TrEMBL record:
GO biological process terms held by the UniProt record: sensory perception of smell
Similarity field: Belongs to the PBP/GOBP family.
Parts forming coiled coils: none
Record has Secreted as a keyword: yes
Protein name per its UniProtKB record: CSON002082 protein
Keyword Secreted: yes
Annotated keywords: Secreted, Signal
Species: Culicoides sonorensis (Biting midge)
Length: 165
């Protein structure tokens, strides 16, 4: 019982502290993770096109590294609340229940995978396979403004003043 209370407190805390990753941060994380894992530009291009045909440990770990930096992957698994929080950043009318169900079933499917890099990659691949919009939500979340204004997306000069730290 005590464990559950601590867990509940932790989940609430984690969600409250989760800061959505914007495009600049994402590109920074991607560059850091790519060089840390020896990932090539060609491999990054494949991932950008949602081509998960790369059976390669460095690619697996690159994916996990990015998710860890985004606070979407902790202690060997995905933090579902943080994933939803991130996706909401770009998609206001997100179907939480559907996305959560997709992610949970993918996590469940691969939970026996000991290799955490491979686990992260396979869950991502599975998540994309459940609904081809899922990764579109992730992509949208990087370009969205904190205020959710899409019509002023080309105005950059004051956009950074609104960031909450």
């Amino acid at each position: 019982m005590k464990f559950l209370i601590i867990l509940a407190a932790f989940v609430t805390l984690a969600y409250a502290e989760h800061v959505c990753t914007d495009r600049a941060k994402f590109l920074e994380y991607r560059a850091v993770c790519a060089s840390a894992n020896g990932v090539t530009d060609e491999q990054i291009e494949h991932l950008k096109q949602y081509q998960f045909d790369l059976e390669n440990e460095s690619v697996y770990c690159h994916v996990k590294c990015i998710f860890e930096k985004m606070d979407l992957f902790k202690d060997g698994t995905f933090v579902t609340d943080n994933v939803l929080h991130q996706l909401h950043h770009g998609t206001k009318d997100l179907d939480d229940a559907a996305v959560r169900a997709d992610l949970d079933s993918c996590v469940e499917e691969f939970k026996a995978e000991e290799d955490k890099c491979k686990f992260a990659f396979n869950v991502l691949k599975c998540f994309n396979g459940k609904n081809d919009k899922n990764l579109g939500y992730l992509k949208s979340s990087f370009v969205a403004h904190t205020e959710g204004e899409h019509e002023h997306a080309h105005v950059h000069d004051h956009a950074h003043a609104h960031h909450h730290h």
